[in-house]
């Protein structure tokens, strides 16, 4: 097993291959969180780096992480604990932006250019947002608002992440790990333990009510989409919101019901055999008997932590599925 960690100097003119203590952790989360790399290295007479220094991690030749040092802590033995984040860390910056007639991917491309961020593949989200004002809002929140509007109006989910130094946006269907007939599968043999939850307590709605105050007619328009069967089973769980000009009320109500009219299922797996292709936003096949349900389908990775040691590679996974709620 080959783990290669490089760290640059403050000016970016040199790169060092430091002595790394076992246990490099790479963590990603699907929403509003940058990828994080934590590790410990030993100080010597040659090593020279500081906050802002670039960090690169490769494992068995795979490009895992590219980011920058944001924190370091030393002890008396000259062991340095380092925390680095990928490019998404800069999405914590706040700004005020007004935009019209843009898809979420177009918004991301525009803002990324303003902040000199490196951009990779940004798949077309197709849904055009008529107009929006984002005031004193983090870039993370701006992007997520646009992606949430796309999701609630079309039912289509997209994942924003950093792929080895490039801002990337992909549709959920592009996030499956593997290829047809050879998708990555997690089962009893590949994971040490699991924790499973099933709930209608959060993000479950069987009645959608949307209103729009039509200034042209002077009337309030009301759009309702509901599932009477699930209302009888669970009681009325209502989602309420107001529409903005240009939004299609009936279509959005139906899309929201399709999205939220189901149980939420969560699954945490610990000490799963590591696979470098898995990150937050990935889709993996799960084949497990969870008690009240047997799962043999794709699940969405909400959070992923990789642990790299000299001869070991493990993952802890937080999954959601087979129904997805933003």
Task: Describe this protein's structure.
The chain has helices spanning 104-114, 139-154, 228-234, 249-260; strands at residues 3-8, 15-16, 24-29, 36-42, 54-59, 62-74, 79-86, 94-102, 119-122, 129-138, 158-162, 167-171, 178-179, 182-183, 185-187, 193-199, 207-214, 219-226, 238-242, 264-273, 283-289, 294-308, 313-321. Helix 1 (104-114) packs antiparallel against helix 2 (139-154) and helix 2 crosses helix 4 (249-260). The longest helix has 16 residues, at 139-154. It is mostly beta strands. The model has no long low-confidence stretch (mean pLDDT 90). The two termini are 36 Å apart.
The level of helicity is 10-25%
Report the sheet with the most strands, covering strand number, pairing sense and barrel closure: 13 strands, mixed
Total number of helices: 4
Number of strands: 23
Rounded mean pLDDT score = 90
Computed structural class: mainly beta
Between the first and last Cα atoms, what is the distance in angstroms? 36 Å
- Uncertain segments are none
Inertia-based shape: globular
List the helices and strands and how they pair.
Blueprint: E1 3-8, E2 15-16, E3 24-29, E4 36-42, E5 54-59, E6 62-74, E7 79-86, E8 94-102, H1 104-114, E9 119-122, E10 129-138, H2 139-154, E11 158-162, E12 167-171, E13 178-179, E14 182-183, E15 185-187, E16 193-199, E17 207-214, E18 219-226, H3 228-234, E19 238-242, H4 249-260, E20 264-273, E21 283-289, E22 294-308, E23 313-321
Parallel strand pairs: 9-12, 15-21, 17-19
Antiparallel strand pairs: 1-2, 1-5, 3-4, 3-22, 4-7, 5-6, 6-7, 8-10, 11-12, 13-14, 16-20, 17-18, 20-23, 21-22, 22-23
Helix pairs in contact: 1-2, 2-4
């Amino acid at each position: 097993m080959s783990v290669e960690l490089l760290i640059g100097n403050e000016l970016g003119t040199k790169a060092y291959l430091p002595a790394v203590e076992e246990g490099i952790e790479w963590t990603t989360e699907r929403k509003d969180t940058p990828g994080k790399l934590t590790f410990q290295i030993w100080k010597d007479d040659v090593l020279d780096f500081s906050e802002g220094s670039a960090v690169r991690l490769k494992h068995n030749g795979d490009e895992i992480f590219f980011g920058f040092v944001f924190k370091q802590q030393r002890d008396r033995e000259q062991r340095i604990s380092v925390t680095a984040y990928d490019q998404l860390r800069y999405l914590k910056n706040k700004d005020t932006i007004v935009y019209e007639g843009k898809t979420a991917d177009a918004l991301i491309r525009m803002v990324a250019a303003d902040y000199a961020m490196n951009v990779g593949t940004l798949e077309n989200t197709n849904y055009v947002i008529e107009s929006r004002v984002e005031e004193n809002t983090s870039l993370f929140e701006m992007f997520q608002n646009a992606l949430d509007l796309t999701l609630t109006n079309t039912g289509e989910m997209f994942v924003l992440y950093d792929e080895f130094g490039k801002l990337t946006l992909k549709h959920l269907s592009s996030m499956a790990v593997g290829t047809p007939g050879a998708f990555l599968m997690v089962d009893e043999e590949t994971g040490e333990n699991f924790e499973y939850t099933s709930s209608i307590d959060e993000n479950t709605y069987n009645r959608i009510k949307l209103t729009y105050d039509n200034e042209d007619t002077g009337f309030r328009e009301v759009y309702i989409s509901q599932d009477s069967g699930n209302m009888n089973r669970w009681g009325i769980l209502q989602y309420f919101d107001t529409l903005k000009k240009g939004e299609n009320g009936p279509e959005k109500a139906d899309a929201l019901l399709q999205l939220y009219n189901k149980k939420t299922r969560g699954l945490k797996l610990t000490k799963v055999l590591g696979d470098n292709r898995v990150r937050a936003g990935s889709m993996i096949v799960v084949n497990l008997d969870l008690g009240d349900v047997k799962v043999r389908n794709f699940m969405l990775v909400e959070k992923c932590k990789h642990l790299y040691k000299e001869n070991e590679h493990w993952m802890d996974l937080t999954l959601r599925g087979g129904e997805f709620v933003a």
